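Handout, section 4.2: multi-component inputs.
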Amino acid sequence: MGSIAYTLAKAQSTQKEGQPNQPLLMNSVHQVYLNGEFVPAQSATISVFDRGFIFGDGVYEVIPAYGGRLFRFTQHMDRLDRSLTAIGLENPLVRDKWNSVLLKLISQSDDDQSIYLQVTRGVAARDHSFPDSVDCTVFVYAQPLVTPSTKILQEGVAVILAKDNRWQRCDIKAVSLLPNVLLRQQATVSGASEALLVRDGKVTEGAASNVFIVKHGVVVTPPKGPAILPGITRDLIVELATENSIPCREEDIPVGALRGADEVWLCSSTKEILPVTVLDGTQVGAGQPGPAFERMLQLYKHYKDEFRAGRRN
Ligand code: PDD
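Output:
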């Protein structure tokens, strides 16, 4: 905990209170969408009484866009609907409207993009109970998608194991991410890229990613349920494995199985698929990305190429 406090203090000392991260806003994000309007990032402001700000009372999505197309749009929108329903909010926009807002934002650049969208329970006097009637706050922006470098894909990343001290509804993509933030920071301070979380002796997921292991050629990922976010990338990997007759199971991963795995992978919309080669300072399998990873990476890249070309959705 001491080291986390130190790192936070150091990070804050380089950024004055209340000042946004200028390089992000000025260089990569131009127009954003806020409550029905496209506005320059610098002039997009929300009320200090927004429940997203006060309570973390809202949900979000992160959607990649390749070649000007929204990757797995339907799946992301379906998950957004489930998250909104779970917190008792109606979707403020119809799907076609989401589609046009997102397409307009990504049209600002030819690069592959990562879209962040957030819906909060809006502005109200501070009271934990829901306000009687309130307009949701809707905020969306796009920024260039930075996928893992070739070096990282060749060498893999290090992870640590940490106690999964989050709540019991990790299937909701909620903006209240303090446990995830602290767990990821714990990994960063340890020189690792991600924290893999353990609940009741089983690995659930990463602080911001899903997890796969491979043992004797069988790919395994934890089943969906309240303990994990139903990752869109996770589902695609399961789909690709099934389509290509790669044995794949959705079942619990005890910590011992993780430690004894031949391969460990992480995945998310922004990381895509990453090989893990170090776990708590000890090498995973042969200490380099394994053959199952190489195969899945090729399948994933091929899928993306087909998607870019408009041959897959
Ligand atoms: N996070 N699990 C958690 C806790 C996550 O935060 C994420 C993604 C995933 C992977 O889900 P998907 O494949 O749908 O991106 C799993 C995003 C990228 C984020 O918070 O930035």
